[in-house]
Amino acid sequence: MALYTHHLPAWKRTEVEEIKRHFEEYPVVGLVDMYGIPATQLQQIRENLRGVAYIKMARKTLTRRALDEIGGEVAGMSAHISGQSALIFTSENPFKLYKLLEQTKTKMAAKPGETAPEDIIVAKGPTSFKPGPIVGELQQAGIPAMIEAGKVKIKDTKTVVKRGEVINAKMADVLAKLSIKPMDVGLILKAAYQNGTVFAPETLAIDETVFLGQITLAAQQAFNLSVNAAYPTAQTTGAILAKAVREARSLGIEAGVYEKDIIDAIIGKAYRSSLALKELVE
Amino acid sequence: MEYIYAALLLHNAGKDINEENVKAVLSAAGTAADDARVKALVAALDGVDIEDAISKAAAAPVAVAAAPA
Amino acid sequence: MEYIYAALLLHNAGKDINEENVKAVLSAAGTAADDARVKALVAALDGVDIEDAISKAAAAPVAVAAAPA
Amino acid sequence: MEYIYAALLLHNAGKDINEENVKAVLSAAGTAADDARVKALVAALDGVDIEDAISKAAAAPVAVAAAPA
Amino acid sequence: MEYIYAALLLHNAGKDINEENVKAVLSAAGTAADDARVKALVAALDGVDIEDAISKAAAAPVAVAAAPA
Amino acid sequence: MEYIYAALLLHNAGKDINEENVKAVLSAAGTAADDARVKALVAALDGVDIEDAISKAAAAPVAVAAAPA
Amino acid sequence: MEYIYAALLLHNAGKDINEENVKAVLSAAGTAADDARVKALVAALDGVDIEDAISKAAAAPVAVAAAPA
């Protein structure tokens, strides 16, 4: 705190106060990095989040000052300020906020020097290019290009940049020409605060498929329990009846209780046994 | 499953599956019928097409075993 | 199938599957028990491991049912 | 299951599946035939198309039993 | 199925599946618990090995076996 | 198939599958037994674990799944 | 799994799966609800087709529920 002067210019004071006020108005606050988002994209993201979340951009120093003045756990968020910070205010819970921000991410062309967020793969097949210098450019970038039927064609599918590798200028240029957009652009959540707790993004990244898998599992367990314990519910009465019928049929067939309903199956069982034995004999 | 067996027995015998009948069958088999379970059974079977359930059990695969590798 | 249900009911209730018991269950269900069928049932189940025979139903595989269109 | 094999044997030989014939086959096999089971078998098979039941059994896929781990 | 889920929840939480607990859970879920059904549930699950019952295939006969890849 | 039926009948009845027995069963069923085939059958089954061979068939589905429309 | 059971209970009861309801159900079951896990559950299930996930269980060929890790 000692770093700060007591007297901020009035407009800065207003900014800090506004941030502090939003902290009181919204239950959930996220700290995001907007680095590299073009203005048009940012406009789109704001549009998509309208009514759900409010984005507040401010200078880092002012953001930090506001966080410090609120103090407590909130002050700890300062450590996550990086790049081009902004605060995002919402009533949704932090996990939902993370999900929302993931959904607003879009793909963009790579700029030279950027790091590949995933393996960049060029698929084989025809391109829209007519024969020309492009073939050489592709080949120089390590992409197997050839000319076929008057068109430039990629011979084989190839991973041209591995995840985590830097995309050089030549590659960036070629990828752009091929309309390959490997970069995820969007608001990157660095931390989220709710009710005394600061959540790290790793905590917030939940895998929905895991939850869905658990739901399916739980539904199976409930179904099994209902049927196996013979506790009928609207969804399982038919299955319970069928199980009892199967048990009775099975007992009858196994033990050779000659009843009309199962005599077919008994004949079938005897016949199949005979077939199995016949195979051995002949 | 004894409650279910009793219900199927009554159904097969062409009798109503009501509390009284279910209890009579269970007690003949020497089982003390639990009132609540009898009620629950009768309620659950109300409106259920038992023939349909039976024919599915008879026609359908006895059980499903599919563990694809 | 009534006879088999009666047998399962008795088995579940931990009772002997003998002629007398089977008849008692059937008559409670309002079915006139046929002497020969009762005898046949009891004879068929004599020495049979009922739990095992039942469980074959659960374990039996499916004729891989065609996917419905 | 010996009773059913006796029935299938008679069927194959083109003989009537009646009590007398079933008993004759069983006794030739050295088995004391249980009267009630023979009656039950004959009654159950009455009106049944054995050829049909056999052809269905033959068509049944060869087991795909998969023991779930 | 609510009653079954309530039972599963209590089981997982290591609590007794008794009428009081089942009702408490159901009412917390905003469901008016039916007395008879609660009693039936508790009676049905009495003595049941729940771990076993939830993992044992109840083999829905309706189910269509997925074609193994 | 009649030779096989006869063999299984004897097996189920707990009798030896020898020429004499097979012939007795076949002739009781009204089938003229062919000497060479009886010998071949008996020889082929010598040392065969019939239960094992049968159990493979028993594992086959009890009923063929009805083809869904 | 108790969080999932709570969610399905609410779903079956026709109630909203929100933090308040999930916590109420869990606490009625005697489980101390972890704030972050409740939040994660609610967020994860938001916009998800639960019926679809459930129907997968009903259609699942093998009802053998693997023990959750």
TrEMBL record, chain A:
SUPFAM superfamilies: Ribosomal protein L10-like. It comes from the Archaea. Gene3D superfamilies: 3.30.70.1730, 3.90.105.20, 6.10.140.760. Keywords: Ribonucleoprotein, Ribosomal protein, RNA-binding, rRNA-binding. GO terms for molecular function: large ribosomal subunit rRNA binding; structural constituent of ribosome. GO terms for cellular component: cytosolic large ribosomal subunit. GO terms for biological process: cytoplasmic translation; ribosomal large subunit assembly. Belongs to the universal ribosomal protein uL10 family. NCBIfam families: PRK04019.1-5 (NF003098). Forms part of the ribosomal stalk, playing a central role in the interaction of the ribosome with GTP-bound translation factors. This is Large ribosomal subunit protein uL10. It comes from Methanofollis tationis. The lineage of its organism: Archaea, Methanobacteriati, Methanobacteriota, Stenosarchaea group, Methanomicrobia.
